[in-house]
Amino acid sequence: MAVVFQKTKGLTDTPFHYCPGCTHGIIHRLVAEVMEELDVLDKAIGVAPVGCAVFAYDYFSCDMQEAAHGRAPAVATGIKRVHPDKIVFTYQGDGDLAAIGTAEIVHAAARGENITVIFVNNANYGMTGGQMAPTTLIGQETLTTPYGRKAEVNGYPIRMSEMLSTLEGVAYIERVAVYDVKHVMQAKKAIKNAFLAQIQKKGFAMVEVLSSCPTNWGMTPVEALNWIKDHMEPYYPLGVYKNTLEEVK
Amino acid sequence: MAKVLMKGNEALAEAAIQAGCRHYFGYPITPQNEVTAYMAKRMPEVGGVFLQAESEVSAINMVYGAGGAGARVMTSTSSPGLSLMQEGISYLAGAQVPCVIVNIMRGGPGLGDIQGAQGDYFQSTKGGGHGDYRLIVLAPSTIQEMADLVQEAFDIADEYRNPVVILGDGMLGQMMEPVDFENIQKRKRDIPEKTWATTGRGNREHRNIINSLYIDPPVLEKYNYQLFEKYAKAEKNEVRYEMINCEDADVILVAYGTIARVAKNVMNIARREGYKVGLIRPISLWPFPKEPFEKTVNTAKAYLTVEMSMGQMVEDVKLAVQFKKPVYFYGRPGGMIPEPSVMLEQIRKIAGGVK
Ligand SMILES: Cc1ncc(C[n+]2csc(CCOP(=O)(O)OP(=O)(O)O)c2C)c(N)n1
Ligand code: SF4
Ligand SMILES: [Mg+2]
């Protein structure tokens, strides 16, 4: 019988630990498929975050380093400066990238560090049980905003893609979502571009993925996907924020 | 190249380059700025990488990435910067990433001042970061020794897969002395290949992973025991110290780094006055040299520890002496230098007129 579908070689056989309906798994698969299609698995070095994706080093079939919370862009910088011809990527949550690791991501982008960043925005701290993240929406209830996030107290959610795309060193930034097939396909294209930017040595590339956290949002998987579309997307518009690629495929 | 006259900070940077260090990540801070400036100039000449990070937090994590990727990598800083690096240092130790970290200490606490001081002994030798780990800490007292130890530090780091700290102070960093790079004193070692480094999988069957997360407690316990086997080996093989005039000494001065030079002069003056004074100079602060104390505790009457702090190493001296003899202390904080005259006075008092 002809094989019509196979799991990507970019993932190991270790089963994901993610909650049912969590889109971290889809994003992992897209990253792995892109690396396989670009034939870079043998020269890829990934950096896992602290967050729900902390075990990413068990899942991607390439060499991996586990970074301290928020420091993945600095760790990736160290790796890339040793191996400029290898493919280096980070996989980070919104607490990791937009709170504790803000300095590291901003300066990696400003330096035009030739790395690829996969930024998973799920509007909360998933791993620690659902606290406010810098990306938590106004009015959103979390463990640390039990009465809803209030601008007077907590300020406003950060739009990282918009902010980073103002930096000269950035080659590619796109915000995508993975709540339906069409968007999953677009997300994969964006992730591919973000790796291509690195292959073409264009500079810093990031894909922000709006992602679900049904467990901490207190929703069913389907409700969570709809919540992304109805609540996150209006505040975090999808689209390409910067693109200096030679030939966008 | 014969001997060259160099500042301590520049000599240590050059020593690192000669030891094969090709990656340096740092953030400016006085009194170690000459290291960053020297590296910025020299690294491009030797095809290496100098990168000024946005903070010491970032610098130490770049060190983690580069060291984990197999490079000989170094960072340098001074006291406040070392505080910022503590999280990263714990991760480096936990993931067994070799690297060299230089701390050219200044007065504290807080912003303190920029004079040389020795207030970071506890921080360097007793952890500083979280968790059960040890760093190998080497404290030179001359610029030649600084060059020697920096080169040795890279070898030790690679042999043990552990961060090694060079603990100097502002005075040692700023002063000039002749250095001979052709006759560097270091031991012969079996340095294993870095088969564990994340270099990209290539044709390798297995993946390499740099990590300190072991979520299952029994597994983490076992991993910690493995680390401590390694530390035990270091305690056996990496102890360094200098011992002068201790055979007949009644009073033994104990000092490391810059102030050990002053203590040595004081010892000589006291000897000329007829007092039997010796000197123990720990060079490895961790592992702390217990041996010179075991050798002298039955013959010496007392020890006098001198530090450029309010007393930190003195606790290790007391542990080594095990209350068998009195251990006195004299120190000054804030980047002030302990006075030779006060040391002499203390020696006379401790010796109690016994010449
Ligand atoms: C220095 C430090 N502070 C706090 C934590 C606890 N912590 C672990 S994960 C996390 C938040 C992760 O949230 P995010 O980056 O959004 O990832 P997610 O789990 O949502 O994917 C926090 C605060 C830590 N591990 N280290
Ligand atoms: S807590 Fe949220 S982000 Fe984490 S695995 Fe579960 S659903 Fe996913
Ligand atoms: Mg999150």
From TrEMBL, chain B:
The source's domain of life comes to: Bacteria
Q: Where is the Pyruvate flavodoxin/ferredoxin oxidoreductase pyrimidine binding domain?
A: 14-237
- The portions of this protein that span the membrane are none
Gene Ontology MF annotations? 2-oxoglutarate synthase activity
Enzyme Commission code: 1.2.7.3
Cite the CDD domains for this sequence.
TPP_PYR_PFOR_IOR-alpha_like
| Keywords per UniProt | Oxidoreductase, Pyruvate
The record places domain Pyruvate:ferredoxin oxidoreductase core at 249-340
Q: What PANTHER family does the annotation carry? A: SUBUNIT OF PYRUVATE:FLAVODOXIN OXIDOREDUCTASE, SUBUNIT OF PYRUVATE:FLAVODOXIN OXIDOREDUCTASE-RELATED
Q: Which NCBIfam families match?
A: PRK07119.1
What is this protein identified as?
A: Pyruvate flavodoxin/ferredoxin oxidoreductase domain protein
Biological source species = Thermoanaerobacter thermohydrosulfuricus WC1
